[in-house]
Amino acid sequence: MRLDKYLKVSRIIKRRTVANEACDAGRVEVNGKPARASYDVKIGDKITVNLGQSPKSFEVLEINEHALKEDALKMYKPLD
Fold first, then answer.
1. DSSP calls for the chain
2. Measured between alpha carbons, how far is 56 from 59 in angstroms, rounded to an integer?
3. 11-62 pLDDT tens trace
4. Are 4 and 21 contacting, i.e. CB atoms less than 8 angstroms apart?
5. Who contacts 18 (Cβ-Cβ below 8 Å, separation ≥6)?
6. Cβ(60)–Cβ(44) under 8 Å?
């Protein structure tokens, strides 16, 4: 699954266009390296999002095409 879509489906970022723009601006890193929106997310990846005051880090636990609000929280584990 593309990185921008994963960020939207998991509800880390509210809209896919915002996720895409954040990737283009270099505000999203995967495993310590800046990632493009087209990056293929894998289980175990560590994603860092630099939006707002402090960066937030997550570890990918699941990849689902669609997720309800309750299920979205099971897709990642916060690392902060």
1. -BHHHHHHHTTSSS-HHHHHHHHHTT-EEETTEE--TT-B--TT-EEEE--SSS-EEEEE----SS--HHHHGGGEEE--
2. 11
3. 999 999 999 999 999 999 999 999 999 999 999 999 999 988 889 999 999 9
4. no
5. none
6. yes
